[in-house]
Amino acid sequence: MKEDMLEKIVLETIDVPSIPPVAAKVLQLVNSDYTSINQLENIISQDQSFSTRLLKIANSPYYGRGRSIDSIATAIIIIGFNSMKSLVTAASLKDLHRKSGLFEQKHWEHSLGVSIAASLLATETHMLAPEEALIGGLIHDFGKIVMNNSLPDQYRSVIDRINEENISTVVAEDEIFGFNHCNLGALIARKWKLPANLEVVVEYHHAEHYPPFEDSGYETLCQVVQVADAMCLHLGIGMQVAVDFSKIGFEQLGLTAEHFETLLKKLKEDYISQKGQLF
Ligand SMILES: [Fe+2]
Ligand SMILES: [Fe+2]
Hints:
279 residues, mainly alpha, Hypothetical protein af1432, binds fe (ii) ion
């Protein structure tokens, strides 16, 4: 679908959320060559709940690396400007998950599971930075939560159709909404000016073929998240769907069937031990 057509339909249908203002400002600042730690700290500190959330993520096993980070300035120094983009994105996504219905809960568990699975795959294959995989996994399906928040009754029909007719989420969404969580998510990622790798993974995590990307790492990120998604659906982390193992594509990541089986077991353990400590 052409981008402006899609945008028109989406804006007529969906209440597109805006990025928290503090997050927008931080993303803009970290992209500038002239930003100081002080400037970033000032902006972030003005928003108490955002600051608290950032510190929680900064102290997660992925960033904290065993030390306790108690101020925004320390977080920026230890984590670095570049990782701030991921951190701020993760903190912004949590805002979309305020509702506490069953779908929202399952969706959050799925996102967390895919996030942990993707970073596990990145660590095992050395094809990608685990942190990039972590945020890619967390964000990949965020279009779904926006559709559900905006039009819960229609989204209920999507879920019913998936269960009753055994069709894929993307097909059911396309039929009921005229667009799906991938193109909606990518549109929001562009509006929010999120980093390009995140926009790409949101748009292409269900694609069978990829367009030529400007950065070859984008394709790896999509493949990692696709495999991580299948692992969680198979294990029933968040949602459960029967997965055709011959189509998972773990060979593309250089994994053998035995290695992949071991990773499935490890993912179950990692999910239980890490889910409370992240985000
Ligand atoms: Fe998806
Ligand atoms: Fe997913």
